[in-house]
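Tutorial, part two.
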Amino acid sequence: MRVLASICMLTAVLLVAKAQRPKQDVLGIVPLHSTRADVERLYGTCNDSSRCLFQTTTETIAVAFASSPCEGFIKGWNVPKDRVLSVTVTPKVPRQLSEIQSELKGFATRYSPDDIVTTYYTNVAKGILFAVQEGRVINVTYYPPSTE
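Running the prediction step on this input gives:
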């Protein structure tokens, strides 16, 4: 009987841990969960208080941090200072829009009034925004999903 109870308890703990795991993991960074220390462990130090840029061989990674609760590059998230608010990945070799077309189901399309050449595909529930110019994905921004 104790073995059965132990197995049930372990199963419950594992299910709760899985449910609490962050949904987005972008290059080891999860908006609203990762901290500046986590990012610097992965990519090196950064002296900017609100936004850091990191270069890899294949992309540029821009990470925005909270400067205090509800303040930062993206306002409104009540998280501690130095918590990741968003991650933007700009590939050095952009992918073709046709390569991700199947991933865009449920995404809203909008055009920037300031910039007639960029189309934005956004899914607020997933927390993803694709910026596309001339049929190429120029960057992808990951921000907290609306379910957070």
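The longest helix spans residues 2-20. In part three we will examine how such features are distributed along the chain.
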